[in-house]
Design goal:
alpha/beta, 4-stranded mixed β-sheet, Rossmann fold, GMP Synthetase, Chain A, domain 3, 28 strands, 26% strand
Length: 531
Amino acid sequence: MEEYPFEQRVLGWILHDKAEKNRRKVFLQFNDSRITYQEIDRISNRVANSFLKMGVRQGDKVCLILKNCPEFLYTWFGLSKIGAVEVPINTDLKGDLLKYIIKDSDAGIIVVDREFVERIRYIEPELENVRRVIIKDDDGRTSYGIQTPWDPFPVLLEGSDLLNPLPVHPFDPIAIMYTSGTTGPSKGVLMPNRQFYDWGHDYAVSLGIRSDDVLYTCLPFFHGTSHFIVTMMALLSDATLAMGAKFSASRFWDEVAAHQATFVPLVGAMATILYNRPVQPGETNHKVRLIYSLPAPRDIYREFEQRFNVKLIEAYGLTEVNAPFFNPLDAPRIGSCGKKVQNYEVALFNEWDQEVRPGEIGEIVIRPKEPYSMMLEYYKKPQETLRAWRNLWFHTGDLAFEDRDGYFYFVDRKKDSIRRRGENVSSYEVEKVLNSNPKILESAVFGIDSDLSEQEIKACIRLKPKASMTPEEVIAFCQDRMAYFMVPRFIEFKEEFPKTQNGKVEKYKLRQEGNGTSTWDLEKSGIKVKR
């Protein structure tokens, strides 16, 4: 892999350089489309020029509410060419959570799939910062009912495919990625160009990615794995990126084979879901040599490898800090997230920020050895930034231990976050929605173990005096105000909550109680949560 000097670790520069070297080589596969390195570079130039014509300048923010599609890359790459900042948003968000991110990011333009425009219309009166909306797949007939000026996506393709180089540096922001909030609203991780480079470079080196590889991902591009890991790996390695529309267990191996993929990432329970399906004749008719699974299912690790004729590998990473651990390809350990990589200092601290001994559990703390290889800040949240960086170490909020051979093992999240269906869910944000109901006095939301290796969401609810409410009413209230994966599966009404002396709910006690006869189960109710 070519090593770029510091000043060239900028996405726009790298894309143009790769296009010059790999002109007719296919960079992107999507359905039946094949888009070369040169074509995607020129398209991104058109988009960049169109944004400039709209008044977008370096540092300006643009929200992307798009499903997996080539237009996602065109927009992202085009913005990077002019030093603007993309803000990818989870397409399942709606209502107050969607409004919060759009407003907090200071975005002036939204690029959105046609099917999500209604969500924008619903919150539009409070989006004072938004001056234009770009709609993908506009049919030319629909009246969207929004007051903000809008254009169909092809308007972005009308610019010149020649772009005068703009001064964008490795330390300039390229994206704001919103992570799950724990003790407060979701935080926007402001990421520099250099960090995107390091994500792709470090993963490609650790995973042995080559120029003849085809990297297939069906994970959503508004998340980091597809976005700045797989895409940047493909670009830096002169490889091909194969984009799937979404994960389908029944079609997974057929799609992988159709794209002739050699590398695939999985997250959450995807590996377990694939393994639990009945054996199919074509599930080994593929070219995949390596699957990166976060986490890798330790109870079926070897069985998964043998059944599907692949190699599993696991690591650890955070949007804020990249990947400080990687399992060696030649000596992975089941259940471990790997050993330290050379670009970062890593330690495990106790609650007083003292380093613990091997075998003892501590919080993972990290700091970089090179500049701009981690986040710049939590956007507009200086106190949160300082708190995370206390004592000159970034505190991840994750607990782990190290064995005597230098392998690290993830234990649990110190922070109050829930991992469900491949998403990090903020208990704070679910509670915020629940507590906005006039009948609810307070709520406590937490994760409980799931059979699929992740967690399910449970909400314990205290109603106001004389108020009455059914679990079905709670679900109806939630699904109109939050993403489907945030809607609690289990609901239990409580008279009182266990609390500390300063009034904080002791969720660990509620979690220890487990589910009983008074716990209502969404799945058993037969209700289907709408997306």
